[in-house]
């Protein structure tokens, strides 16, 4: 069940993570997992930069995103960090391009450490979802 997390932890340590079908599947599973966890927590988190551009134009963001024209849904997305974009969601983890996927994987230890801190600061660390985030943060921290 958590084989995809092990793959992400392993690849997060690589200087140039391999982007292949296994990674794409793992990112899709992580998208799904974080949709459920973040929906339960409802804690916003503006995470690390995953921009392939010269400037820090895109970041991993957890919040209720307006996606596909429906009502906002909680999850993680790659969002535009430009002030005029108002954190517009642009890609899912799996939907990002090859170069950005490698940056996403490399950013996961920092992402989970920061998200766990945000969850704790919101007083939700003891919830099942909060413990799940803390567990993921620990798995990625152990890999560093």
If you had to describe this structure to a student in words, what would you say it looks like?
There is one protein chain. The chain has four helices and four strands, in the order ααββββαα. With 144 residues, it is of the alpha+beta class. A four-stranded antiparallel beta sheet has the order 1-2-3-4. The chain is globular, with a radius of gyration of 14 Å. The mean pLDDT is 93.
Which descriptors would you attach to this protein?
144 residues, alpha+beta, 4-stranded antiparallel β-sheet
Helix content: 40-55%
User: Biggest β-sheet, characterized?
Assistant: 4 strands, antiparallel
Number of DSSP helical runs: 4
Strand adjacency order, main sheet? 1-2-3-4
Count the E strands: 4
Give the quaternary arrangement of the chains. single chain
* Strand residues, percent: 15-25%
Instruction: Give start-end ranges of low-pLDDT stretches.
Output: none
C-alpha-based Rg, rounded: 14 Å
Structural class: alpha+beta
